[in-house]
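Go through this fold for my students:
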Amino acid sequence: MFTSRPELTGDVHMVASIQWLASAVGTSLLESGDNALDVALTAGFVLQIAGAIERRGAGSGSRRP
């Protein structure tokens, strides 16, 4: 099956979000020993950055319909 984003799997930890980059960063932090609060804050930050990048190229005035 074709997918535009990688399949993320975890043996012990997993983070789910709407953006695969946030999930990958969160899972990496959990596996390195960080706590859930650090992961939630970092994943939220990544979501804000990824959202800003996606909206930047969305068209006239950087707004999605």
Remarks:
- The chain has a mean pLDDT of 77.
- The longest helix spans residues 36-56.
- The chain is about 50% helix and 0% strand.
- Residues 19 and 55 are 14 Å apart (CA to CA).
